[in-house]
């Protein structure tokens, strides 16, 4: 993988660094909890103490937004982990055999966008981070299954697989020894791009009140609360939204950059 | 896979989806009737609701009853509004349906030409600039874009209404004006995705051997792009549209909330907040059904247009 | 009278790297010229420069005169008029050279649509006549069939019909028989041969199949690394090859290796 001459990857990583580094530092220092309420300094303008001002509760907006970003990435990462692990397992299972049942399951996931799953779960069980993660992971599952299956099949038709089968290796062993290491780079690329989608889903769900419940700071929930202040305190709406956008853009670009780096050897074909 | 077996597969999917929804709504620990009515409800009213919801019958019987009602078009009764769910939904579709349709048209109508432009100028500055812009637009959360557009076009420039939907009673354009901002906000990220997909699909098609054959036949550069490559490159975009459909439908729920549009999304959220179980269950089922059926129609269209998919392959 | 095709001092460069070097030859109407040489010797580049379809970054120099007109000075619209019309070409991969989404009748008709002012029904009649001529109708393939429903040989016949539709003065065939089995190869070659005789069409064939070349070609041109090492009448090239490279090529064919071109052996990837 040639990653040195890859401006997309570097720009994406830089964007992620701008948001994630301070977000992680904030999380380390405050545990990503909401900053203290300070009724004396509500709607403060930006100052040295509060670089971006404060919110309607007098909380420091910068700290709030960075904690929110940390929480968003955490939820998105857990959802992507879930759909990657489950999707890879199902995709590998579907690679060898006629895929009817598993692929049908994949189509089912596509019919349940996160908002619908979350609406069901919130009505039945109340709002929870677990429910939100499940809802996001379910919708990401079909793509994961499909991609894993496709990649695994291109490897399974190679001759060295037949050779290794003749040498007495079982299916599980072949999947583990030959297929999984070969599709790992692809899975990484896919996971990076999925993070972008998962962050968007998380923001939308929290905006609707279907995401993880308070008190943990959340960018989508903040946008819903601050929306009415768009005219008098535009920073309250602009900053959380821009933060989401930077994260999504960062993961999108990093994913594209990784994909380019992965595809590069394939593109060097003779005319 | 031919269209008939595809239809059968989607029907199975629909049945499984109904089972999932039914199961989720019956996950509720304890008594749904007391959940709906809250802590301070009288035992009599709980018992009455219990009966109204059919909770006194066994699970399989309840499922069969629900599906039977669905097939007959009976979507149950809203507990909160005390009106049939179907009339609630019918009312709300007046803004939701045009919104989704408009967003889909905008997404395809802007995405396809933009993707073609980028592909035709591949490698040039205009292509790279366009791609960078699309990457940015693809990453904007649609509901935040909606807020920022309201700020600019409604609150600052006063061009378009900031929220609400007057209905179609005051003339077509009055209704349309209220849907423009929501539809654009919904469409922009999807159009960016469509454009990027269109670009790579067209570039992929243009690199195929049959393009060289067409050029050797005497097709000009633009002729080969429009008449030979474009139809082939559009097929994958149709498949993509099938995946974007559920995203648009749920996106509409969020955007409706930003603009306080009285659509299905708002109905769903109100029902979730008020624990109006029949409305949530039936509305989710209805949306999932719409997603599956529309997805099937698009898949059937792709099979109709692409002769290779129309028949069984060895 | 001048020859139909005169190539004088043709060189092709890609990023300052020479692909073809000072190539000169002539081809008369009704004659068959075979270009032989290993893969990478510049055969396909030669074919594409004759069609004006060199990939971006490839620069041709010299002269290609067809009916005494220098093709290298043509504008793109002028090229479009002669491609498919006075110049026809068939490619080596019948699997991918046809548009999978269109019926073969429509694809054959395209050549006619682009270069003639015939009516719709005349085009249809001519398309059917072409399909009859190349033996597709006889094989039970009608004009509404899609490429994936055809066998490799049938697809090659369809490509031939597309190339021959406007009765080109010169047909360029780039290893068009490589992907076919021996029987089909002979059939398709016979078909092309008939056409060169009845319509006085010239054929420039690029081939690895030296048996086919020896049997059908009038002249042979041997390419090595973009340089013509030897050219002349088929009989003299085959009976008395002057250049050691030609001798080596012929020797390989005697051992039966020419039917599977050297560099087209299946290639397996083994994980590191």
Automatic annotation (TrEMBL), chain A:
Keywords from the UniProt entry: Cell membrane, Membrane, Transmembrane, Transmembrane helix, Transport
Protein's organism: Gluconobacter kondonii
Highest taxon, organism lineage: Bacteria
Lineage per the UniProt record: Bacteria, Pseudomonadati, Pseudomonadota, Alphaproteobacteria, Acetobacterales
Membrane topology: Multi-pass membrane protein
Protein name as it appears in the record: ABC transporter permease
Gene3D superfamilies with a match to the protein in the record: MetI-like (1.10.3720.10)
Domain ABC transmembrane type-1: 69-255
Family: Belongs to the binding-protein-dependent transport system permease family.
Alphabetized Pfam families for the sequence: BPD_transp_1 (PF00528)
Membrane-crossing segments per the record: 12-32, 69-95, 115-141, 183-210, 230-251
Intracellular or extracellular location(s): Cell membrane
TrEMBL record, chain B:
Annotated keywords: Cell membrane, Membrane, Transmembrane, Transmembrane helix, Transport
InterPro entries: BPD_transp_1_N (IPR045621), MetI-like (IPR000515), MetI-like_sf (IPR035906)
Protein location: Cell membrane
Keyword Transport in record: yes
Residues in ABC transmembrane type-1 domain copies: 93-298
Annotated PROSITE patterns: ABC_TM1
Residues that span the membrane, as ranges: 97-119, 140-160, 172-193, 233-259, 279-305
UniProt keyword Transmembrane helix, yes or no: yes
Major subcellular site: membrane
Recorded topology in the membrane: Multi-pass membrane protein
PANTHER family (alphabetical): DIPEPTIDE TRANSPORT SYSTEM PERMEASE PROTEIN DPPB-RELATED
Family: Belongs to the binding-protein-dependent transport system permease family.
Protein name per UniProt: Peptide ABC transporter permease
Species for this entry: Gluconobacter kondonii
Record lineage: Bacteria, Pseudomonadati, Pseudomonadota, Alphaproteobacteria, Acetobacterales
Automatic annotation (TrEMBL), chain C:
ABC transporter domain mapped to chain residues: 5-250
Predominant localisation class: membrane
Highest taxon of source: Bacteria
Cellular localization per UniProt: Cell inner membrane
Mode of membrane association: Peripheral membrane protein
Family classification: Belongs to the ABC transporter superfamily.
PANTHER family, per database record: DIPEPTIDE TRANSPORT ATP-BINDING PROTEIN DPPD, OLIGOPEPTIDE TRANSPORT ATP-BINDING PROTEIN APPD
Name used for this protein in its record: Dipeptide ABC transporter ATP-binding protein DppD
């Amino acid at each position: 993988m040639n990653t040195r001459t890859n401006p997309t990857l570097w720009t994406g990583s830089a964007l992620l660094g701008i948001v994630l580094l301070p977000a992680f530092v904030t999380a380390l220092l405050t545990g990503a909890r909401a900053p203290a309420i300070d009724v004396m300094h509500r709607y403060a303008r930006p100052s040295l103490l509060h670089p971006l001002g404060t919110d309607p509760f007098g909380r420091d907006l910068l700290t709030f937004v960075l904690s929110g970003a940390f929480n968003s990435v955490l939820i998105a990462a857990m959802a992507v982990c879930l759909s990657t692990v489950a999707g890879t397992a199902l995709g590998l299972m579907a690679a060898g055999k006629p895929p009817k049942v598993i692929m049908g399951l994949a189509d089912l996931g596509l019919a349940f966008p996160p908002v619908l799953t979350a609406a069901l779960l919130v009505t039945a069980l109340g709002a929870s981070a677990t429910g939100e993660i499940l809802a996001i992971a379910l919708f990401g599952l079909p793509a994961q299954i499909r991609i894993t299956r496709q990649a695994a099949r291109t490897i399974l038709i190679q001759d060295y697989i037949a050779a290794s089968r003749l040498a007495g290796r079982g299916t599980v062993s072949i999947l583990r020894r030959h297929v999984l290491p070969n599709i790992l780079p692809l899975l990484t690329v896919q996971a990076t791009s999925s993070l972008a989608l998962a962050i968007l889903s998380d923001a939308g769900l929290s905006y609707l009140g279907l995401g993880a419940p308070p008190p943990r700071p959340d960018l989508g929930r903040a946008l819903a609360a601050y929306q009415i202040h768009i005219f008098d305190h535009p920073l309250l709406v602009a900053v959380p939204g821009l933060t989401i956008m930077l994260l999504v853009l960062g993961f999108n670009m990093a994913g594209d950059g990784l994909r380019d780096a992965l595809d590069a050897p394939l593109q060097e074909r003779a005319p | 896979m031919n269209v008939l077996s595809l239809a059968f597969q989607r029907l199975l999917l629909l049945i499984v989806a109904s089972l999932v929804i039914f199961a989720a709504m019956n996950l509720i620990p304890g008594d749904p009737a007391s959940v709906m009515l809250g802590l301070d409800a009288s035992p009599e009213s709980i018992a009455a609701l219990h009966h109204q919801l059919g909770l006194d019958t066994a699970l399989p019987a309840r499922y069969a009853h629900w599906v039977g009602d669905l097939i007959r078009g009976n979507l149950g009764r809203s507990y909160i509004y005390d009106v049939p769910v179907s009339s609630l939904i019918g009312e709300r579709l007046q803004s939701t349906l045009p919104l989704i349709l408009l967003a889909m048209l905008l997404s395809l109508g802007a995405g396809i030409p933009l993707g073609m432009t980028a592909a035709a100028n591949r490698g040039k500055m205009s292509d790279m600039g366009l791609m960078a812009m699309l990457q940015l637009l693809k990453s904007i959360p649609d509901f935040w874009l909606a807020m920022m557009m309201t700020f600019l076009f409604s609150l600052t420039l006063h061009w378009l209404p900031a929220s609400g939907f007057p209905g179609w009673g005051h003339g077509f354009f009055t209704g349309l004006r209220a849907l423009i901002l929501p539809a654009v906000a919904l469409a922009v990220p999807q159009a960016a995705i469509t454009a990027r997909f269109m670009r790579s699909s067209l570039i992929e098609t243009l690199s195929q051997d049959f393009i060289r054959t067409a050029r050797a036949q005497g097709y000009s550069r633009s002729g080969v792009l429009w008449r030979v490559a474009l139809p082939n490159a559009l097929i994958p975009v149709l498949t993509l549209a099938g995946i974007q459909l559920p995203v648009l439908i749920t996106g509409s729920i969020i955007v409706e909330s930003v603009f306080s549009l009285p659509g299905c999304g708002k109905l769903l959220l109100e029902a979730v907040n008020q624990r109006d179980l029949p409305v949530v269950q039936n509305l989710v089922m209805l949306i999932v059904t719409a997603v599956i059926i529309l997805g099937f129609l698009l898949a059937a269209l792709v099979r109709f247009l692409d002769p290779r998919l129309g028949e069984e392959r060895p | 009278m001048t020859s139909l095709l005169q190539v004088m001092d043709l060189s092709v460069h890609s990023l300052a790297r020479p692909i073809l070097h000072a190539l000169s030859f002539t081809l008369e109407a009704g004659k068959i010229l075979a270009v032989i040489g290993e893969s990478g010797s510049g055969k396909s580049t030669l074919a594409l420069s004759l069609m004006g379809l060199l990939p971006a970054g490839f620069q041709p120099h010299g002269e290609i005169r067809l009916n005494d007109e220098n093709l290298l000075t043509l504008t793109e619209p002028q090229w479009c008029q002669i491609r498919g019309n006075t110049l026809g070409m068939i490619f080596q991969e019948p699997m991918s050279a046809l548009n999978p989404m269109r019926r073969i009748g429509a694809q054959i008709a395209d050549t006619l649509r682009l270069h003639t002012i015939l009516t719709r029904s005349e085009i249809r009649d001519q398309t059917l006549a072409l399909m009859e001529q190349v033996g597709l109708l006889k094989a039970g393939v009608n004009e509404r069939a899609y490429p994936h429903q055809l066998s490799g040989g049938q697809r090659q016949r369809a490509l031939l019909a597309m190339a021959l539709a406007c009765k080109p003065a010169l047909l360029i065939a780039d290893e068009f028989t490589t992907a076919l089995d021996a029987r089909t190869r002979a059939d398709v070659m016979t078909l092309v041969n008939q056409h060169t005789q009845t319509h006085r069409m010239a054929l420039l064939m690029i081939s690895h199949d030296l048996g086919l070349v020896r049997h059908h070609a009038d002249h042979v041109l041997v390419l090595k690394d973009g340089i013509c090492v030897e050219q002349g009448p088929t009989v003299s090239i085959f009976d008395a090859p002057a250049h050691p490279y030609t001798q080596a090529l012929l020797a390989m064919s005697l051992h039966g290796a020419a039917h599977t071109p050297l560099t087209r052996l299946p290639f397996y990837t083994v994980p590191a």
